[in-house]
Amino acid sequence: MAVNYGPEMQFKLSYPDSGRVGTKHQSQERGQWSSKTEFLLAVAGQIIGLGNVWRFPYLCYKNGGGVFLIPYVVFLFACGIPLFLLETSLGQYTSQGSITCWRKICPLFEGLGYGNQVVVLYSSIYYIIILAWAFFYLFSSFSAELPWASCTNNWNTETCVEFDSLGSFSNLSILHNATSPVKEFWERRVLNITGTVYELGNMRWELALCLLLAWIICYFCVWKGVKSTGKVWMDAGTQIFYSYALCIGCLTAMGSYNKYNNNCYKDCVYLCLLNSGTSFVAGFAIFSVLGFMAYEQRTDISTVAESGPGLAFIAYPKAVAMMPIPQLWAICFFLMIILLGLDSEFVCLESMVTAITDMYPSFFLMGHRRKLFLLLICAGSFFIGLLMVTEGGLYIFQLFDYYACSGMTLLLFAILQSVCVGWVYGSHRLYDNIVDMIGYRPLTITQYCWKYITPVVCTATFVFSLVKFTPLKFNNTFEYPWWGYAIGWWFTLSSTLLVPLWMIYALLNSSGSLKQVCTLPDGMANSLLDDNVLAKRFVTKT
């Protein structure tokens, strides 16, 4: 039913029922955090993940140790905290997920929400593969001798050489191509990896069962919703975006379950400092272990320092095998990896479900439809993920990691979010919205970050990343075939192109000017957010 606001222009965009926003009735149906602690723990679980353990310490080492902290801190205060506050406050103010929140403040930029959710979907599909590997290692740790500590297993080759207590390899002068038992366990026992990307190989059924276990745990932890759950600068920037879960809609989804008057400003500052502090502590812990390994092997730390899966499944298992009671240390380490990964996966799933549920609340909030939708996402993602637990699955995994969730994609979304809020919706308006919610004025520089500093820094980094871009090479040696790169670019473009495609759709299906399609007048914007009198169209005064 149309509501008359006086002289107005109606846009003929067809929107699903988005429910009432900001009302007590809708909040009860949609759900809210029972306490601030739940919100803080959920977001902390999302942002404190595997990147803190295996990415940040390696980037520090790779880029000069303490020198790396300079660009890291610059990105933290110029981009990390401002964008963290932007996304969380948007969710809290609109009480909407990452798609419908953009619809409420700027219809033209709704494509940002769709792009975010595509990235989250890709991330959920491949991120959980790491948990499957971790479960495999965890179960393998319950043995009299760690299976990656010796060369006496049936998967070991003649070139396998055990590391002895004196820090040397026997017959090293003869075995120029010697491999360690931990590397052979990873490549020949866990992955049984094929020789090239052209060979997908057989299904690794043990990994498939571990993957199924991970998805089952994720499903039952999320099904009731929130009630139960130079190059150095580019590296620093992408680490901030990865670690803080920026530009993928998760923070918006989590913030949307906050009470209206929750102090999101203070929460964001504390959570950001907690996350960075955790990265520093993890760096000390990881490099203490790697330093121990280098000392025992009488070698430089550069030979044992690795990033990503190489650190978690090769370097660190080798380290725990050298410790007293290695089984205990192995169990503790892989249990930590699983817990860090699971809570990040929970929030990604909740973000996707929240985004779609907020688009069709009258449908998904009835009966068990939300749970069935979650089951559909988990089942579909599981079957796609089976491709990555084949013998050639690691090649596909790296395509997902390099292209589907690339730093360039997140930087582009960050630029667009900053432009949308800073220049279209108005940084001063969002700033006033936050003041209305928390009751006092945050640092004024925040709105200048949204409008000037963040987009400039992100744009400079994005351009530099384009100039320095190199195609993915497996282990920095093997080049993918043309169709492999085509699949990778499909992953990238399938999320980023949704933004301009939606803009074109919105402009073609509206009868107003570009300015009218971009945003709503100040008074009416607040009216729509408070009362949501228009569920299926946007109305702008002429």
From TrEMBL:
<keyword id="KW-1015">Disulfide bond</keyword>
<dbReference type="GO" id="GO:0005886">
    <property type="term" value="C:plasma membrane"/>
</dbReference>
<feature type="binding site">
    <location>
        <position position="52"/>
    </location>
    <ligand>
        <name>Na(+)</name>
    </ligand>
</feature>
<keyword id="KW-0472">Membrane</keyword>
<feature type="binding site">
    <location>
        <position position="344"/>
    </location>
    <ligand>
        <name>Na(+)</name>
    </ligand>
</feature>
<keyword id="KW-1133">Transmembrane helix</keyword>
<dbReference type="InterPro" id="IPR000175">
    <property type="entry name" value="Na/ntran_symport"/>
</dbReference>
<feature type="binding site">
    <location>
        <position position="343"/>
    </location>
    <ligand>
        <name>Na(+)</name>
    </ligand>
</feature>
<feature type="transmembrane region" description="Helical">
    <location>
        <begin position="238"/>
        <end position="257"/>
    </location>
</feature>
<feature type="transmembrane region" description="Helical">
    <location>
        <begin position="487"/>
        <end position="508"/>
    </location>
</feature>
<keyword id="KW-0769">Symport</keyword>
<feature type="transmembrane region" description="Helical">
    <location>
        <begin position="448"/>
        <end position="467"/>
    </location>
</feature>
<keyword id="KW-0915">Sodium</keyword>
<dbReference type="GO" id="GO:0042995">
    <property type="term" value="C:cell projection"/>
</dbReference>
<protein>
    <recommendedName>
        <fullName>Transporter</fullName>
    </recommendedName>
</protein>
<feature type="transmembrane region" description="Helical">
    <location>
        <begin position="68"/>
        <end position="86"/>
    </location>
</feature>
<feature type="binding site">
    <location>
        <position position="340"/>
    </location>
    <ligand>
        <name>Na(+)</name>
    </ligand>
</feature>
<dbReference type="InterPro" id="IPR037272">
    <property type="entry name" value="SNS_sf"/>
</dbReference>
<feature type="disulfide bond">
    <location>
        <begin position="151"/>
        <end position="160"/>
    </location>
</feature>
<keyword id="KW-0813">Transport</keyword>
<feature type="transmembrane region" description="Helical">
    <location>
        <begin position="409"/>
        <end position="427"/>
    </location>
</feature>
<feature type="transmembrane region" description="Helical">
    <location>
        <begin position="372"/>
        <end position="397"/>
    </location>
</feature>
<feature type="transmembrane region" description="Helical">
    <location>
        <begin position="315"/>
        <end position="342"/>
    </location>
</feature>
<keyword id="KW-0479">Metal-binding</keyword>
<dbReference type="Pfam" id="PF00209">
    <property type="entry name" value="SNF"/>
</dbReference>
<feature type="binding site">
    <location>
        <position position="243"/>
    </location>
    <ligand>
        <name>Na(+)</name>
    </ligand>
</feature>
<dbReference type="GO" id="GO:0005332">
    <property type="term" value="F:gamma-aminobutyric acid:sodium:chloride symporter activity"/>
</dbReference>
<feature type="binding site">
    <location>
        <position position="275"/>
    </location>
    <ligand>
        <name>Na(+)</name>
    </ligand>
</feature>
<feature type="transmembrane region" description="Helical">
    <location>
        <begin position="207"/>
        <end position="226"/>
    </location>
</feature>
<comment type="similarity">
    <text>Belongs to the sodium:neurotransmitter symporter (SNF) (TC 2.A.22) family.</text>
</comment>
<feature type="transmembrane region" description="Helical">
    <location>
        <begin position="119"/>
        <end position="139"/>
    </location>
</feature>
<keyword id="KW-0812">Transmembrane</keyword>
<dbReference type="GO" id="GO:0046872">
    <property type="term" value="F:metal ion binding"/>
</dbReference>
<feature type="binding site">
    <location>
        <position position="45"/>
    </location>
    <ligand>
        <name>Na(+)</name>
    </ligand>
</feature>
<feature type="transmembrane region" description="Helical">
    <location>
        <begin position="269"/>
        <end position="295"/>
    </location>
</feature>
